[in-house]
Amino acid sequence: MVTQLELLKHLEYLHQLNDEERFEMSKICKPLFLPKKTKLVESDDMFNYVFVLTTGLLRWYFYSEDGTENNVFFSSEADEASIIGIPEYYADKRETKYTIEAVTDTQILMFPKDKFEELAFQHKGIFQFYIKSLKTIINILRIRTEQFCSASPSTRYEDFLIARSYITKNTNRKYIANFLGITPNSLSRLSARIHKKRPPKK
User: Fold this and answer.
1) CA-to-CA distance for 132 and 38, rounded, in angstroms?
2) Which helix (H) or strand (E) element contains residue 65?
3) Rounded to whole angstroms, what are the CA distances from 178 to 31, 59, 74, 142?
């Protein structure tokens, strides 16, 4: 049986932490396996954890007042590793309107948010990882906002194919279409057009 400390030692992106910092994190770490289609969080839940995704893929969505599903975020093992919390944390709230669902079999490491933040203010390496994570999340939101403001659906999809190839291969196309703000039929047309533009493989 692999211990929490052993898990943390083998995560490449936590190699910046010293042995004491990894040990302190292991004391509050809770590994969790989410089979495909399992929900980590549902709308209106109180979720007092932050987590690191180690393998798999999560989608984050909520429903509008008219019942429309809105896929807003994807988190995958191919992304730069970050400590992640529900979006409402940034407004000091614990209750979320989001549902977080495993798109594939997924493994995460969970930490009570308050205890993790206490460690971050006590240990330089953990603090640096926390700040780096926040910068990563801000940059993702910046790119997403700029794309919706200035990029065409075709450009958004082409950028998605390049930057998020793991997600493209592992999730339902209707989720991707919704994420990009287009219909599944439009996505199919864009996909066919892009495929025609690509040179044939030799």
Assistant:
1) 28
2) none
3) 30, 12, 12, 19
Mean pLDDT within 65-93? 89
Tracing tokens 């089979």 back to the chain, one arrives at 35
Q: Could you tell me the two tokens for 1?
A: 């049986």
Edge-first strand order for the sheet with 57-63 is 39-41, 99-102, 57-63, 69-76
CB atoms within 10 A of CB 176: 22
Q: What pLDDT does 81 receive?
A: 82
CB atoms within 10 A of CB 83: 22
Q: What are phi and psi of 52, to 5 degrees?
A: -115, 130
pTM of the predicted structure, to 2 decimals: 0.86
**Calpha distance 41→86 (Å, rounded):** 9
Q: By three-state DSSP, how is residue 50 classified?
A: strand
